[in-house]
Amino acid sequence: MLVLAGCGKKEQHYKTADGGDLKLETTGSGEASVVTTTAADGSQSRIETGGTWPAALATLAPAYPGGKIATTMSGNQQDTQSAMAAFDTADAPAKVIEFYKARATAAGLTGTMNMESGEGSMFVASDEKTGRTLSVQTSVEDGKTSAVVSASTKKP
């Protein structure tokens, strides 16, 4: 369930199918809304529209220069922290992929996969020792490149 309503802050509590508790908190409105869910075990997910680049993502992959952020998500579970950002840019998909390939290499990620299909591309890099993974997907529509960057890190 996704609720984006009104200005300010709204908090709701729900029971899950297995009898657990779930807190849903919404803040903001329109192009700057945030929805945060918190489970009884403390795991969280956060969805933000028109927001800022997630800190959990920035450690592996900074915001793309000149990219217009559409949506971001971040979350943590017992042993994993993850984040995703979707953005648009006038740059070609290859330029976006190369930007993040360089960041992956600088972060020590190896095990890579590259895939191209029509005007879309995908790049994945990982580091088994640290449990870090970076994924970048691009596509072109109406002359602009849309990209989704996601990363996950195992907690120590």
List the helices and strands and how they pair.
Elements: E1 9-15, E2 21-29, E3 32-39, E4 44-49, H1 55-58, E5 68-76, E6 80-89, H2 93-106, E7 113-117, E8 120-127, E9 132-141, E10 144-154
Antiparallel strand pairs: 1-2, 2-3, 3-4, 4-5, 5-6, 6-10, 7-8, 8-9, 9-10
| Sheet with most strands | 10 strands, antiparallel
The ordered string of helix (H) and strand (E) elements is: EEEEHEEHEEEE
Which architecture of the largest domain does the CATH hierarchy give at level 2? Sandwich
Helix content: 10-25%
Question: Per CATH, what is the topology of the largest domain?
Answer: Jelly Rolls
**Rg, Cα atoms, Å:** 17 Å
Shape: globular
Strand content: over 45%
Mean pLDDT reading: 84
Number of domains: 2
Detail the poorly predicted runs: 1-6
Kindly report the spatial arrangement of strands forming the biggest sheet: 1-2-3-4-5-6-10-9-8-7
What is the CATH C-level name of the largest domain?
A: Mainly Beta
SS-based class? mainly beta
Cα(first) to Cα(last) distance is 31 Å
Report the count of strand segments.
Answer: 10
Number of alpha- plus pi-helical segments: 2
Oligomer state of the chains in this structure: single chain
In short:
This protein is mostly beta strands. The chain has helices at residues 55-58, 93-106; strands at residues 9-15, 21-29, 32-39, 44-49, 68-76, 80-89, 113-117, 120-127, 132-141, 144-154. It has 2 domains: 1-49, no CATH class; 54-154, Jelly Rolls (Sandwich), CATH 2.60.120.
